[in-house]
Amino acid sequence: MTRTSFAALIGAVGLMLACGSAQAQLYHYKDATGHMVYSDNPPPPGTPAADILKSPKLKQSAPAPATAATADGKDDKSKDKKAGPQSVADREADYKKRQAEAAKKGAADAQKAQQAQDTQARCAALQANLAAMQSGQRIRKFDPNGNPYFVDDAERGADVAKAQQDMSASKCGG
Question: Quick one: what percent of the chain has pLDDT higher than 90?
């Protein structure tokens, strides 16, 4: 870096710092004749507050602590407790409470979704079973001794009625 460019860099940084401090003290107001005035000096005394459009932010003292009673003497317990500043412990407790509620809601939603999925799977199995029994194809079952046999029309009718009853009990459409 050459000496000239270093000096230019220092000059540019100096100008930026000077501009930043000058901008922080800028007043914008209407004078008595109605002209807009931009100045680093405050408006003259007697200038209405409505005519002062911009003034630098001044450090303000901390607001007075809120009391438990309002101006009319009534107890102010009905207001939200978040109106005043909260301590770190209060905010942490509120955060943990919100997290616990969100976890509880998430668990309940997951349980409902699982129940819906189980119901859908049961309904699909019941519908497939009913369709197979109503198709007219031969159905083979096993007796208690393990011997296979073919279902006759009377047993098929009873199985169809039971499948339809199971579907209506499970609130399956169809």
Answer: 20
Determine the Cα–Cα distance for residues 96 and 99; give it in Å rounded to an integer: 5
Compute how many other C-beta atoms are within 10 angstroms of the C-beta atom of residue 139: 15
Side chain identity at residue 5, one-letter code: S
Q: Which two tokens stand for residue 25?
A: 């003290």
93 has a pLDDT exceeding 50: yes
Give the separation between CA 25 and CA 19, rounded to whole angstroms.
Answer: 10
pTM value is: 0.40
Strands 140-142 and 148-150, by their bridges, are: antiparallel
Separation of alpha carbons 96 and 16, rounded Å: 45
- Note the pLDDT of residue 114: 94
Residue that has been written with the tokens 């939603």 in this structure? 109
Taking alpha carbons only, the member of 54, 51, 55, 53 closest to residue 33 is 51
Report the distance separating Cα 13 and Cα 81, nearest Å: 47
The strand pairing partners of 156, in sequence order, are: none
> What type of residue sits at position 68?
A
Strand partners, 149: 141
In the DSSP assignment, the letter for residue 105 is H
